[in-house]
Amino acid sequence: MCNTLWSFYRILTIALVLAFISAARAQDIFAYNILLNTSGLSANPGVSYTLDFQFNNGDAILGNNTVTFSNFDLGGGTTSAALPTTLTDGFASDYQDPFTPGDHISFTLTMTNAFSGDPNLYSPDEFTFSILDGSGNDINTTSPNGSFITIDTSEVGGPQSASAYSFGKITATIVAVPEPSIWLLTLLGLVGMGILALTRQNCASGGEI
User: Fold this and answer.
1) Are 67 and 153 in contact (CB under 8 A)?
2) Which of 35, 104, 113, 181 could bridge to 75 as Cys pair (CB 3.0-4.6 Å)?
3) 66: Cβ–Cβ under 8 A, 6 or more apart, which residues?
């Protein structure tokens, strides 16, 4: 009896691990928490700024990736229009919103990860988040393209490239957030491993399940 249960729980645990790996690859959706300290901008009253969200196509298919935004917090700042909810990659997929800075800007970003075409011929789709000055120019950050946040797609199953940059006292951070389904599968895996350990211990002591 114990040997049968031991084998069953071992197979179950292996199946959960494989399900975890398959789900992570099948979804290929990535989420990030983004935070900018903009207190340096708010110290300049009367200067106009604009939030600039871009999602530029790089691979062989237009519109095969989407960025979704949620949980915006402007830290006491204001915008002239509604903040974006989604962007689809394109040649001119650009959303600009004039704003008055507060202490910080934070939001959650969810991004799909499709890639089409030969990686040697095409580049990834790329999302960037920048702040423009009163002349409509990017505030010159440490990024090569002047953005505070840059995220590139990758081939399916591979990790995305996510980077944060700064400009003087204006610092940006980006933290990856696991999808809820991944948390659930991880929990199921831990439960399965716990049952497996208890079964093995009980069988070793001569008990019954």
Assistant:
1) no
2) 104
3) 86, 87, 88, 89, 111, 112
pLDDT band at 23 (very low <50, low <70, confident <90, very high): very low
Indicate the pairing of strand 78-79 with strand 94-100: antiparallel
Asked if residue 122 has pLDDT above 60, the reply is yes
Owner of token pair 């979704």: 68
Count of CA atoms in the C-beta half-sphere (13 A) of 37: 9
Q: Which residue, 120, 117, 121, 111, is CA-closest to 62?
A: 117
Give the chain's mean pLDDT. 81
Q: Which of 80, 56, 84, 82 shows the shortest CA–CA distance to 70?
A: 84
Confidence of residue 66 (pLDDT cuts 50, 70, 90): very high
Lowest average pLDDT, out of 30-44, 74-88, 145-159, 195-209, goes to: 195-209
**pLDDT above 60: residue 186:** no
Residue 45: partners with Cβ closer than 8 Å, 6 or more residues away:
none
